[in-house]
């Protein structure tokens, strides 16, 4: 339909009747809104043969990181191609079909690159912006996330989605170590778009990385409306709050949030499992008895051992299986990961080969109490762990387990080196975890010296 434009000002083949629902879909996606699929459904009801919409549905399926939804994404691509024959998309819309094909062919980085190239000619395409960010996040590429935003930032001053762009920029700045600017951008974005949970969570990341847990709790306590509308992303924001309480040693508050918010819904979505498993692991590192909370995570994760869609998800399923004592499922997961790594065809299979397998073997050894073996495997994976995706805060559970394996394996010097490097990477701010572990190393060394002086083997 010539002359029709979406809320970003991009020309679209949508009819005037369908454009309102499509704009609502994009706005909801920008805000991680639970209503996103409802708006998309209304778009199809108004215009069934909308090729870009079907392609976007497929991309949404792939972002969920579930094996069974890969087939759903293929069905969406078929629907998009059929729609394109009946109502040809314009050149911009056709890029979305190409990006979906790339990802289904095992090359998500090519899909992200397509959207970034599209933004060179259509820099105000809000959906392309957000999809590029989402895919690069899954691939653990914050430098490219930041670059993608900075190339279009100058032409967004009057964009109706400026607040969401600033939220994305805030996260990219934080993940690339520019904490002061990241916090500023996130706060500015929320003033424009108060429902931008991504931007709010970006500021929470800044608090985490700069060891300001008390300030973070104070700020987030008045912002709950910013994530009430969200899909399961709201559990992740509560997870951040729980991390702040954990840093302050407020264990009762952490467990209460786990039970009432973080696992309010017992889903097997890999992001929800990741929130839960990483939090339980952190609690156990601090010596907390988490009771039977591992059981439901392990039972759900047993059903995901064949996924192999997101390495980040696989490793958190591993944490859950180990925590729940499901040794056979652990072996099944390791076997499947090994087969994927040997194929080495898709980008995810290559990441499974390295660092996925080393990390998974390290986690298994840790669960069995073989701390020296765990340390060797986890430290081998450490340099490449950025590539599994997620954020610094999320991957920090693997950093803590590497350090804990070094401590329990008797490698005190290595543990201290890792702690100091961790603090350096976090802008020099020592958080509660690091302070407690450095104190533990000091105590171990003093006790070892006393034992040697008394003639008792250390």
Description:
This protein is mainly α and 458 residues long. It has a domain at 280-458. The protein has helices spanning 16-30, 36-46, 51-63, 67-86, 91-104, 108-121, 126-138, 142-152, 162-175, 179-192, 197-209, 213-220, 233-247, 251-262, 270-285, 293-302, 311-323, 327-343, 347-367, 371-382, 392-408, 412-425, 432-453. It is globular.
Please describe the biggest sheet, giving its number of strands, its sense, and whether it closes into a barrel.
none
Give the overall average pLDDT.
Answer: 95
- Quaternary form: single chain
Distance between the termini: 79 Å
Number of helices: 23
Shape assignment: globular
- Succession of helices and strands: HHHHHHHHHHHHHHHHHHHHHHH
Structural class by secondary-structure content: mainly alpha
Strand-residue proportion: under 5%
**What Rg, in angstroms, do the CA atoms define?**
23 Å
Determine the fraction of residues in helical runs and give it as a percent range. Answer: over 70%
- The count of DSSP E runs of length 2 or more, i.e. the number of strands, is 0
Q: Which consecutive residue ranges, at least 5 long each, have pLDDT under 50?
A: 452-458
């Amino acid at each position: 339909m010539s002359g029709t434009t979406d809320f970003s000002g991009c020309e679209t083949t949508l009819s005037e009747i369908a454009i309102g629902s499509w704009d609502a879909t994009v706005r909801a996606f920008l805000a991680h809104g639970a209503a996103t699929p409802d708006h998309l459904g209304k778009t199809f009801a108004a215009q069934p043969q909308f090729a870009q919409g079907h392609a976007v549905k497929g991309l949404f399926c792939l972002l969920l990181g579930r094996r069974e939804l890969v087939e759903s994404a293929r069905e969406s691509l078929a629907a998009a191609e059929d729609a394109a024959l009946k109502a040809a998309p314009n050149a911009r819309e056709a890029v979305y079909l190409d990006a979906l094909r790339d990802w289904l062919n095992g090359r998500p980085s090519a899909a992200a690159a397509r959207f970034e190239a599209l933004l060179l000619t259509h820099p105000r395409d809000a959906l392309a912006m957000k999809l590029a960010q989402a895919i690069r996040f899954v691939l653990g590429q914050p430098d490219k996330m930041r670059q993608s935003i900075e190339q279009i930032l100058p032409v967004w001053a009057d964009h109706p989605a400026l607040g969401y762009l600033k939220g994305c920029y805030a996260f990219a700045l934080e993940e690339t170590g520019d904490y002061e600017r990241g916090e500023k951008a996130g706060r500015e974005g929320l003033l424009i778009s108060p429902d931008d949970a991504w931007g709010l969570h970006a500021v929470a990341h800044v608090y985490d990385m700069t060891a300001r847990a008390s300030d973070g709790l104070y700020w987030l306590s008045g912002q709950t409306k910013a994530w009430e509308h969200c899909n399961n992303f709201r559990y992740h924001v509560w997870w951040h709050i729980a991390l702040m309480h954990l840093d302050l040693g407020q264990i009762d508050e952490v467990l209460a949030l786990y039970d009432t918010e973080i696992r309010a819904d017992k889903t097997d979505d890999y992001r929800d499992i990741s929130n839960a498993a990483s939090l339980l692991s952190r609690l156990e590192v601090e010596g907390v008895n988490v009771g039977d909370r591992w059981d439901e995570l392990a039972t759900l994760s047993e059903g995901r051992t064949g996924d192999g869609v997101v390495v980040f998800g696989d490793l958190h399923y591993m944490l859950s299986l180990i925590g729940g004592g499901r040794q056979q499922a652990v072996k099944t997961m390791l076997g499947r990961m090994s087969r994927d790594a040997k194929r080495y065809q898709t980008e995810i299979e290559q990441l499974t080969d390295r660092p996925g397998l080393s990390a998974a073997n390290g986690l298994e050894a840790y669960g069995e109490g073989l701390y020296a073996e765990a340390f060797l495997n986890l430290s081998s994976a450490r340099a490449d762990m950025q590539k599994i995706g997620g954020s610094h805060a999320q991957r920090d559970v693997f950093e803590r387990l590497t350090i804990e394996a070094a401590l329990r394996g008797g490698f005190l010097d290595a543990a201290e080196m890792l702690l100091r490097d961790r603090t350096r990477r976090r802008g020099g701010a020592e958080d509660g975890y690091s302070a407690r572990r450095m104190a533990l190393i000091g105590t171990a060394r003093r006790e070892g010296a006393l034992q040697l002086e008394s003639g008792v083997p250390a």
